[in-house]
Specification:
The protein is an alpha/beta fold. It is built from 26 helices and 19 strands. α10 links the parallel β6 and β7. The radius of gyration is 28 Å and the shape is elongated.
């Protein structure tokens, strides 16, 4: 039959793609061929020539190592981003068919996957986004948002903790339009899953609140796969997982073993696979004309669906102009006119507040005029100060709500937030303590790699959190984030800088931001400004011919202001809310802020890494913290005005004298401006 020939083509083409690269994973694509055929050939709503179409179903390949399958399905169905030459360049440096799916590399990829568990967790975010947008904008006579989210995943995703976190929440939220096809082939890289994974996945997901279905022969039985998807679509109160029993590397002489998981089959094995499926064993990258013609029918079918959708949407626009204009603005990532006017400003003498509290004020001011701000906290809402006064919680009974109760699920939260942004029209924010960013860092990294405008609100940013002690006091986390490409790490010193951090974060299009915020109250400082934050670092206390420049971030800026008053001599003070933005400034500006022949001393309650690019000396943390009252902890480690002043005086009188003859030069005075560019690869 034509269908069996289509499925056989998927299997042989996957084998050829991986063999040509001499690298990759042929087993999963060959095993999932029938599932892929059903999804791309019959079930999913999409338009190959309009990959950004708002009304499409969303597809996530969570087991991203099997991406040869997604690429070849995109080629077969007519996506412009993947041609036959691209398949032949699989895993070649700078090709548009990289070793794992990357959303900025290949038009039509929804989310970047590869680290297992991330994709299925992103899909939860995609499903939340659909239900929220539908509840917000749909009308009885217009279903502007009405799509399903489909996922292919494997045993690896089922084992990752992030998937458990996200899927547990999906069950609680009753995401009925989330449908997961689980490639249940009992094989991982090490061998049979009997080695390490013998749980009953179905019972686990039933406990999460999912509908669990099973297809006993997903190698051949496309009718059973289709029937299961029909049942999944009919269940509106539960997400669905379909356990699809497959044989990895179906058709290979090594089928059903880990030998086909992560290595090419070899020419002899591929030859017998092709003969088995009725193809010429000598033909490579062969696609029968009737197979290509059948799949390419999706081009006209997709165009027709888009035309019908646009006709419907034009009627919606005529009847609901305000809502339509807002949807257009949101999906274009445009901000409301005059939005900056709502940012709070402060002057010296205003009430001292923790930057986490100041953050809550800014977040609420923006949320009042920006319906695209959707997010929540990992069970730390009172501590993170992220509650939104303008909306209700997002729950199954109130999907129009914009505040998500993620529970104690930091990693799942981060990945779900990335999915929210990937859907379009949403700027996600997620919150926890800064120390626990490490629980969710793979999602932070993928946000940066993928270009998700995702705001990570990280409170309790230093020793100042006090009694919770070293398990909760961040030391290395600030520098981990600073070292990550395409992430803006902000540590504001007061209210103006907190507003400035949000301003820059909201102005980004494909860069996530991390805001590190204090638990302790901080004074509103003279010299700080919203505008100054955009420069990354700027002078807030300027002296002519200073004895030294003190450069600090966050709560330590105020400490330096007070320390300078205790010292003999003149000291300029620089606040550096975002090092990466400072690196991007012209050399002339950086030399003005950090001039030659002037000693520069950095102060930060974090690890030293990176500071010697900007300073000759750094008063930083060399160990973990200690439990006790915040002010006592800071005193113990030398972070009080008096002790900082003493450290500065001692250094200037000793090592500082030795360095004077060398002009106190630092790297930031010489390096060319840094360039932050997500699109750094020139694809071939």
């Amino acid at each position: 039959s034509l269908e069996s020939k289509q499925i056989a083509t998927i299997r042989t083409l996957a084998a050829d793609v991986v063999q040509k690269a001499n690298s990759g994973h042929p087993g999963a694509p060959m095993g999932m061929a029938a599932m892929a055929h059903v999804l791309w050939g019959e079930v999913m709503k999409y338009s190959p020539k309009n990959p950004d179409w708002m009304g499409k179903d969303r597809f996530v390949l969570s087991n991203g190592h099997s991406c040869a399958l997604q690429y070849l399905m995109m080629y077969l169905t007519g996506y412009d981003s993947v041609g036959m030459d691209d398949l032949k360049k699989f895993r070649v440096c700078r090709s548009r068919t990289p070793g794992h799916p990357e959303r900025h590399a290949t038009k039509g990829i929804e989310v970047s996957t590869g680290p297992l568990g991330q994709g299925i967790s992103n899909a939860v975010g995609l499903a939340i986004a659909e239900s929220h947008m539908a509840a917000t904008y749909n009308k009885p006579d217009f279903k502007v948002f009405n799509n399903f989210t489909y996922v292919l995943c494997g045993d690896g995703c089922m084992q990752e903790g992030v998937a458990s976190e996200a899927c547990s929440l999906a069950g609680h939220l009753k995401l009925g339009k989330l449908i997961v096809l689980y490639d249940d082939n009992n094989i991982t890289i090490d061998g049979d899953t009997d080695l390490s994974f013998t749980e009953d996945v179905g019972k686990r997901f039933e406990a999460y609140g999912w509908q669990v279905l099973e297809v006993k022969d997903a190698n051949h039985d496309t009718e059973a796969i289709k029937a299961a998807i029909v049942l999944a679509k009919q269940e509106t109160e539960k997400p669905t997982i379909i356990k699809c029993k497959t044989v990895i590397g179906f058709g290979s002489s090594k089928e059903g073993t880990h030998g086909v998981h992560g290595a090419p089959l070899g020419e002899d094995d591929i030859a017998q696979v092709k003969e088995k499926f009725g193809f010429d064993s000598k033909q490579k990258f062969f696609v029968p004309e009737e197979v290509l013609s059948a799949y390419r029918g999706k081009i006209d079918e997709g165009k027709k669906m888009v035309a019908e959708y646009e006709k419907m949407y034009s009627k919606y626009e005529a009847k609901y102009a305000k809502e339509a204009a807002e949807i257009k603005r949101r999906f274009a990532q445009k901000l409301p006119e005059g939005w900056e006017d709502v940012l709070p400003t402060y002057k010296p003498g205003d009430k001292a507040l923790a930057t986490r509290s100041l953050s809550g004020k800014v977040l609420n001011a923006l949320a009042n005029i920006m319906p695209e701000l959707v997010g929540g906290s990992a069970d730390l809402t009172p501590s993170n100060k992220t509650a939104l006064g303008c909306t209700v919680d997002y729950q199954s009974t109130s999907p129009q709500g914009r505040y998500i109760r993620f529970g104690v699920r930091e990693h799942g939260m981060g990945a779900i937030g990335n999915g929210l942004h990937a859907y379009g029209g949403i700027v996600p924010f997620t919150a926890t303590f800064l120390t626990f960013i490490e629980y969710m860092f793979p999602a932070v990294r993928l946000a940066a790699l993928s270009g998700h405008k995702h705001i990570f609100i990280m409170t309790h940013d230093s020793l100042g959190i006090g009694e919770d002690g070293p398990t909760h006091q961040p030391i290395e986390q600030v520098n981990i984030v600073r070292a990550t490409p395409n992430v803006l790490m902000f540590r504001p010193a007061d209210g103006n800088e907190t507003s400035g951090a949000y301003k820059v974060a909201m102005e980004q299009e494909d860069t996530p931001s991390v805001l590190a915020l204090s638990r302790q109250n901080l004074p509103q400082l003279a010299g700080t400004s919203i505008e100054g934050v955009s420069k990354g670092a700027y002078t807030i206390v300027e002296e002519k011919d200073p004895d030294a420049i003190l450069i600090a971030t966050g709560s330590e800026v105020a400490l330096c202001v007070e320390a300078a008053k205790l010292l003999e001599g003149k000291f300029s003070i620089v606040s550096m809310p975002c090092a990466k933005l400072f690196d991007e400034q012209p050399i002339e500006y950086r030399r003005k802020v950090l001039p030659f022949k002037t000693p520069i001393i950095a102060v930060e309650m974090a690890a030293a890494s990176g500071w010697y690019k900007y300073a000759n000396h750094a008063i930083v943390m060399r160990t973990f913290g200690v439990s006790g009252k915040g002010s006592h902890c800071m005193d113990y480690f030398g972070f009080t005005p008096k002790k900082i002043a003493g450290s500065i005086k001692e250094w200037l009188g000793n090592a500082g004298k030795e360095m004077k003859s060398h002009g106190f030069a630092v790297a930031a005075q010489f390096e060319e401006p840094a360039k932050r560019n997500l699109h750094y690869v020139e694809y071939i």
